[in-house]
Sequence to fold (129 residues):
Amino acid sequence: MAEALRDNIIVDKSERFADRITKMYRYLSEKRQGDKDMLKQIVRSGTSVGANVSEGQYAQTKADFLTKMTIALKEANETRFWLKRLYAFGSLTEKEFISIVKDSEEIISILTTITKTTKENLKNGTEKQ
Fold:
């Protein structure tokens, strides 16, 4: 891992979240406890969060960084939607749901702060574009 990324909380959380979503997908697929289409959607959106955060770390401009973080935020929100659906359909227990949705909400909160701050900085000209 690149030196600059070692202490980056959103990189760490989004990577761990992608791993967790992938493990959940495998578990539910093997146990046949989840709607196949929902599981495909959640693994796509859940891993996309980390992929976009990772891409954003090497953005060419602050505007490019903002775009990647905004996409990651949208994907995290979509993942939360699919988690709620899996819970509603009984694929996740309440304990499992609360645990993993908490992770998604932490990521959403962090990404919301990152995007708001970056937008303000770009608007005020305090960051190079």
About this structure: DSSP finds four helices and no strands in the chain. Confidence is low (pLDDT under 50) at residues 1-5. The two ends are 26 Å apart (CA to CA). Residues 94-124 form the longest helix (31 residues).
